[in-house]
Amino acid sequence: INQKFELCYSTVDFESLCVEITVKSEKLLVVNCYRSPSGNVDSFIDMFGSILSKLNTFKGHKSYILGDFNVNLYNSNSSVVRRYLDCMFSNNFLPIISRATHFGGLNGTCIDHILTNNISNIICNGLIRCNISRHLPTFVVLDYNFDPNEKCRNRNKVNINDFLLQGFLNDFKLLKFDLESDSAENMYSFFDRNFRTLYDKWFIKSQKSSGNNSLLRSDWISIGVAKSSDTKNKLYDIWVMNKTRVNWNNPAVMATLR
To answer: Rounded to an integer, what distance in angstroms lies between the CA atom of residue 194 and that of residue 159?
Structure first.
């Protein structure tokens, strides 16, 4: 991994860090960016355009730009969005995240982006459901034909056959959706929660663990932090599901849901 200093900025309006990564015989340029929502737009567009232009000078490199740009792609009437997209498209870059990534109010916004000048080897991209912050992590998976037999620590084995598939379908058919009285948001949350539970039940074979070690999500997370995180996530789900225009700005009501 080599840092590309000519593509790194650190100002009050825009920050970027670029590294060159070699995967097998191929070179990738990965740029992590952040734009302050209170920063100067003209300064940001100039620096952003400069980065895109310089990335195109690296022949044989595939480039990926990711970060929090605080530019809501859903706001198509905004002049900032139009200038941002014009700058992007004119340099042959495309956004690959189209779902809402930030939930700071009643409506989600798409402000966390991944941009690339190459989509030929993208397997999938999207968001990770996570309640650590109001931003959902974005990701992109690239195809580099790694050895499928390569050992991976803590990898869960997925088993799918006709018997397991039928068991999954039978359990799924038992779910009851209240299509008349329930909201679309509640129905989707119900579907998503139960689909994940049934998928794990029938198809995922977790590696054996003993004692409280099963609570550890990563080497650096303690058991206490893992338990606290689970509690916070459950409370956050309750809070999100009870947000309405009536109680959103009512501290007394929202305090009972947090």
So the answer is: 19
